[in-house]
Write a structure and sequence with these properties.
There is one protein chain. The chain has 15 helices and 14 strands. It is an alpha/beta fold. The chain has two domains: 1-20 and 407-425; 36-396, 3-Layer(aba) Sandwich (Alkaline Phosphatase, subunit A), CATH 3.40.720.10. 44% of the residues are buried.
Length: 425
């Protein structure tokens, strides 16, 4: 009887350890002033080594990129509903809807039903919305937040849905070739200011915006005409300027989409320059969030591309500087990237985990350095918008928790053994 009681008590101890606990601060329980806003930034294809090589180039080995300074970090698993290695459509759908779907599908569940996105939820609550990318705005990641198709390649259908039903207030990226002249005229007639170059964008200060800065993908950062085409950080800054005017708050998704393309091409220079440009956009967003406690910033990636690994370097001490021109800094970055040796294991995506960095007062005392699945990022945003701060999804079982569980299990076994031994004597 005593043995049974001991075992039952031990099992109860382990069950308590195994039970996930929601971790949040007292500050998170307090009511935050309206409006609540979310900035989600996705570095397409950006794995840990992509961040590392960009850091080495931009600030050196002993400093951090802006994204790395965000106080809370996670490692994110990325598999899709039908494959261990996800594509951008399925991964973006997981972030946008909290549901795993098949590769190639855009915000449609494996059973064929349309999935409501976090952007659409924000619209229902009267918030303004924005989608920014350095790819085409019809590309898989931006499309997953505002359209629903069974094939990410259906660019004409995606474009039609953007025009007829998406209702996104600020749209910027490439992809003008997918619009007919009539479709662009229709959007302008429905209140959108059209910007096709940097100077026009700078002159827009309010209202709805359609920024189309290339026929296809926007130029790689090392090829971008800095006088003609806005950078991702300039697009981010303008988006925040406009969306923040809504008294009900906003949702903004910003994609550094061409990090992925550099990975597919196994081009370390393009990976570096695109990741640094993305980090510059994060700096803009962080500056906004630091002054608006009602806004959270989430930075992550949809998957890793290329199986990038750094193997060595011959870097000197010359770093990009605010004292240089933008073109001088570009040249320094290219030279530094070329002085780092890397290997690539693929020209497609891998199943490696990707980083997640978050900032916001509601995350104070939230656990860090845990592993979560990509669908949980949606729930963080959804719970925040819903005001259910204390219901933010807890992390999956961590190494620390597994260690505790193993120790508790060992105690159970030893206790049972010694009790049995004592009874036999």
């Amino acid at each position: 009887m005593k043995l049974t009681k001991t075992i039952l008590l031990s099992i109860l101890l382990v069950s308590l350890i195994l039970t996930p606990t929601v971790q949040y601060s007292q500050a998170a329980e307090a009511e935050y002033p309206e409006p609540l806003s979310v900035i989600l930034m996705i570095g397409d294809g950006m794995g840990y080594e992509h961040v590392k090589i960009a850091k080495w180039v931009e600030v050196g080995k002993n400093a951090n990129l802006t994204m790395e300074t965000l106080p809370y970090s996670y490692s994110v698993t990325t598999h899709s509903a039908d494959a261990q290695i996800t594509d951008s459509a399925a991964a973006a759908t997981a972030y946008a809807t909290g549901v795993k779907t098949n590769n190639n599908w855009v915000s449609i569940a494996p059973n064929g039903t349309e999935l409501q996105t976090i952007l659409e939820m924000a619209q229902i609550n009267g918030k303004s919305t924005g989608v920014i990318t350095t790819t085409t705005i019809q590309h898989a990641t931006p499309a997953a937040f505002m359209t629903h198709v069974e094939s990410r390649g259906d660019s004409s259908i995606i474009t039609q849905q953007i025009i007829e039903s998406a209702g996104v207030d600020v749209l910027m990226g490439g992809g003008s070739a997918f619009f007919s002249e009539y479709q662009i005229e229709f959007m302008v007639a429905n209140g959108y200011s059209l910007a096709e170059d940097k100077s026009t964008l700078e002159g827009i200060t309010s209202g709805k915006v359609l920024g189309l800065f290339s026929e296809g993908q926007m130029y790689y950062e090392q090829e971008r005409d800095i006088n003609l085409t806005p950078s991702i950080w300039e697009m981010t800054n303008k988006s925040l300027e406009i969306l923040s005017q809504d008294p009900d708050g906003f949702f903004l998704m910003v994609e550094g989409g061409r990090i992925d393309h550099g990975g597919h091409d196994n081009s370390k220079v393009d990976v570096v320059l695109e990741a640094i440009a993305f980090d510059n956009a994060i700096e803009v967003a962080l500056s906004y969030v630091e002054n608006h406690s009602n806004t959270i910033l989430i930075v992550t990636a949809d998957h890793e591309t290329g199986g990038l690994m750094i193997t060595g370097d011959s870097l000197n001490g010359e770093l990009p500087s605010d004292d240089n021109t933008e073109m001088e800094n570009r040249a320094i970055r290219i030279a530094r990237a070329n002085n780092i040796e890397v290997t690539w294991s693929a020209d497609y995506h891998t199943d490696s985990n990707v980083p997640l960095f978050i900032y916001g007062d509601v995350f104070e005392d939230y656990s860090i350095d845990d592993v979560i699945d990509n669908i949980q990022v949606f729930h963080i945003m959804d719970d925040y918008f819903s005001g259910n701060i204390s219901e933010i999804v807890p992390p999956l079982i961590t190494v620390e928790r597994i260690t505790i569980i193993a120790g508790a299990a060992a105690i159970i076994v030893l206790a049972a053994y010694f009790i049995k031994l004592r009874k036999s004597n």
